[in-house]
Amino acid sequence: MTALTQAACFDALAERLCTPGLDSDGRALRISLYLAAESSQFVRFNHAAVRQATQVLQGDLTLAVTALNDTGGGRLEFTRSLTGDLAADIDALLQDRAQLIGDLALVPDDPYLLLPEAVTSSHRHDRGVLPAVDHLVRTVARVAAGLDLVGHCASGAVVRAFADSRGQRHWHHVETFHFEWCLVASGDKSVKSVYAGTQWDDAAFAQRVADGARQLPLLVRPPRKLAPGAYRAYFTPTAMSGLLGVTAWSGFSAKARRTGTSSLSKLERGEAALHSTVSITEDAARSAVPAFTEEGSLRPPLVSLVERGRATGTLNSTRSAREYGIEANGADAQEYPVALSLAPGRLPAADALAALNTGLYVSDLWYLNYSDRAECRLTGMTRFACFWVEGGRLVEPLEVMRFDDSFLRMFGDGLIGLTDEAELIAEGRVMRERPLGSLWTPGALVEGWQLTL
Predict the structure, then answer these.
(1) At how many degrees (to 10) do helices 86-103 and 7-17 cross?
(2) Which domains does the chain have, with CATH numbers?
(3) pTM for this entry
(4) For residue 188, what pLDDT is reported?
(5) Is the pLDDT of residue 72 over 90?
(6) 253-293 pLDDT, tens digit each
């Protein structure tokens, strides 16, 4: 099974399956493969001790058959979970390919189908520094001794690969870890922390645990109940990732902009502007995402989305490129960013609480959604260790509050400053496979944050 994450295995599959051919109507076919594979270890902790440990070795291969013409073309695809037995997998996939070719004549032309014309190749094979399971367990037990640490660590190799019958070959192998945990004070009172990347460091992990532990005594104090109104607030990078993530649902999509459903349409039309210190990019070169899409299109190293508060670009899928006559720029079909980066500002991160002086320290947010998409108004609730701050010091925890405010206002006239350090917030949700998406963001100090109840 470990062969599923090795280039030789994928090359063998491509050699047998990516051969030129014709469909029943005599149209030239393009055969392509897209592999998503991983060799991952998962460890769950409770009371800083192992609750569950397991390993996952898996690979899903998407086989696509396409007949292109001047008006678009037809395409069918099928995804099969590989067994790791190369001969058996090839036999099964050859049958899948024959079935797809036979069914292609029944598929109507897709007028927005557009595949890359250039024959390109890429290769990235990065080795990380990952904690072995026994080392991770000992480190957690030592660093979190006496603490109720509840969490989950996923780590290992993740592979994405693409090949087609025209000779394209793309290989992407990275080794990453993502450790997300809470230090529980009592009941539902806890401090959440995340440590992710490619280079594990015991000292860096220990520092994050210690930072969270220092907040635990504050959580047992009686919480402060705030009246609805406008408050000065500091958002940690974790809280910022939630705000940026919701805005990205439609904000940077080319199709959403052209259909009037983008939450940042007012920004594009010049009816609103973000603060002059706000610059946002899709920074694939800085991330662990592959340099190619599932269709074999190259993903540019950098795409500018907002520059000095003004809209500069969108994420354009191949379908939007075909429909609207624009240039594709490596966006997936959903046109959702996978490597969003908000440039840091000038506020020293170490001085963020002092600059806040009196107000709210917001560590995390959840139940986020739009309350008014056209105005880019967001709503959600505070979560985990959020505190009332006086004189630049954390004083007492806050009762859970709901907010409703415009992203355009918060990071336009309401923005006081962004911190000078950006933090990597890796996508941690694991469903069928470990994700590679991430976000870089600094913390932010905002005036007039609207709490509603």
Answers:
(1) 40
(2) 2-217 (3.30.2290), 221-451 (no CATH)
(3) 0.94
(4) 83
(5) no
(6) 999 999 999 999 999 999 999 999 999 999 999 999 999 99
Q: Length of the chain, please? A: 453
